[in-house]
Amino acid sequence: MEDKCTMVISGSQLMSYISDFTTICWFMEPEFQEAVRRLHRVVGNAVVDDRYIVVGTGSTQLYQAALYALTSPGGPEPVSVVSASPYYSAYPEETDYLRSGLYKWAGDAYEFDKNGTGPYIEVVNSPNNPDGTLREAVVKNRGDEGKLIHDLAYYWPQYTPIIRPADHDIMTFTFSKSTGHAGSRIGWAVVKDKEVARKMSKFIEMSTLGVSKDSQQRAAKIMGVICDDYKNFKSDELFFEHTRRVMAERWERLRQVVDRNQVFSLPKYPKRYCLFSGELIEPYPGFAWLEAKEEEEEIDSQKVLRGCIKVQGRTGSRFGVAQKYVRVSLLSNEEVFNQFLERLSTINSISNGH
Amino acid sequence: MEDKCTMVISGSQLMSYISDFTTICWFMEPEFQEAVRRLHRVVGNAVVDDRYIVVGTGSTQLYQAALYALTSPGGPEPVSVVSASPYYSAYPEETDYLRSGLYKWAGDAYEFDKNGTGPYIEVVNSPNNPDGTLREAVVKNRGDEGKLIHDLAYYWPQYTPIIRPADHDIMTFTFSKSTGHAGSRIGWAVVKDKEVARKMSKFIEMSTLGVSKDSQQRAAKIMGVICDDYKNFKSDELFFEHTRRVMAERWERLRQVVDRNQVFSLPKYPKRYCLFSGELIEPYPGFAWLEAKEEEEEIDSQKVLRGCIKVQGRTGSRFGVAQKYVRVSLLSNEEVFNQFLERLSTINSISNGH
């Protein structure tokens, strides 16, 4: 779709800080907001009517904007931030790097449910990075002490059945995972409460004084082309059908290799009814979450992959679980993915190194 | 220069997070880095040989990246951050909004020089926003307790004589003020120390996982066109000569109006020798820093402008000084600037409201 999606910006366009001073998120391009709402309506993965949209420099920034919005003005103690393990490896670092007095990382949400006290924020990442599971909040029965952030970066039809239009207080999405344009650093939040949307926008103002308009316009254009194709049924194969097919093929080949060499196992995902496709379908996550089959907990699967086949994964310990787990991206280009499978197929046993 | 600067991006370009994993600032486009170095060499406003370049989402993000780099790992107490008043109104907020345990805003650098103690960071904004003065560090004789950040957003020939190639530990610049493209949210830092550059890059990774590649490429293109013109002398009027002429004309008209109605005064700026133009020239700051002439300190000049002539300025109290001062942007488009002057010329005295 390279040509249809080509973006042209003249030297004098998009120069101002301001997109629309009459709206809460004054640095958001109106075309971007429209495109986001339209894309969600086409896919049916999130409720956007009567919701506020906030644009961010990737969902990374929006996660931090949400923490700020839910904790400012701050109480005497920082609010605990938790997520069920295995949790996305960037949450701890993104929460704690500035040693904020507003919030602090408090680890696994299951653990907090059992032993934690006080006000908290639970991040629900669904489908979950690294393990691809569809998730719900874990911490229960805390009255109004808890707030939720739903990180729905991977809740798109190429990765998962769309089981319902998500309808939570704060939902974050990203251009990176919806269409693959990570380099543009564009994310957005769908927010129920006006005051939360205002504070998130204020955070982004203080953090980066807005979000690249060049990239907002490019995202709007590309989302528009995808939606137009669904409206006109003009393509031989529509965007999410195409990307889902690629993911399905990769997963089929991956499972063959993993089953054959009996060194790692992969999660099994139940089929669910997908409202978008109208079929019972399987999830095809963006990551392989590999677990070493040997029984000792001490096996370092990241080290095995690196040492034996020179493949870079991310160890389970970064996600709050044992290092017998390792996460490998399946979203590389075709050549890199083929190399990965070829090398993975050469591993026969962990103990003898190969 | 609209056509020469037109940017075309196809649908499949600039999709990855990564620009160059072999460099410290792995999310920086090589073309952007090259363009930045070339522009500084053409203008002569900063030493870039043997320096690291770090790209950021505007200089706003780079200011915060520098605070992080200079204070992490954190000591028992947050480090004091100071700047000589009148200081840029965004520094206090950008320093304190997350209640970081690493650093905290401590106000006026002159005050800190007299009464402050302990480790500190001084931000030197030169030419200074709001008052346009060329500045040097204010806090003296503290051994190695102090670190400096030089915010050189306005150190370009349209605003000021280039008195020397700046050569400080951390210098920040922005696309917004060099060419006027605020909407792209592109800034860069020129950094002497490798470890500081690494930490600043790490901050940007944790804050926004990189910087829009669309905007980096657009900035590279536009800077390249400007530099090519200086190389070939192809334009009737080169970029900085053109923009300087616009600023000079605005200042001449502004001073006429201000002198005539005798309500406000403007700073006088000494002529300095400009290495870029090879002439003795006057500064033409991006802001009018107006001071009410009435002697009472209580006069609220922002209120006067808003109430009498419906002009939005920013009060001196936001910059750490009396509210008889008000800052008005001179970087608006021609029509808005003309309106401003027309309305300003109708103010005859503050006390009777008009």
TrEMBL record, chains A, B:
Superkingdom of this protein's organism: Eukaryota
Membrane spanning residue stretches: none
GO biological process, one term: amino acid metabolic process
Name of the featured protein: Alliinase C-terminal domain-containing protein
Alphabetical UniProt keywords: Pyridoxal phosphate
Key word Transport present: no
Species in which this protein is naturally found: Prunus persica (Peach)
Sequence similarity: Belongs to the alliinase family.
Domain Alliinase C-terminal: residue ranges: 2-347
Record note on quaternary structure: Homodimer.
GO molecular function, one term: carbon-sulfur lyase activity
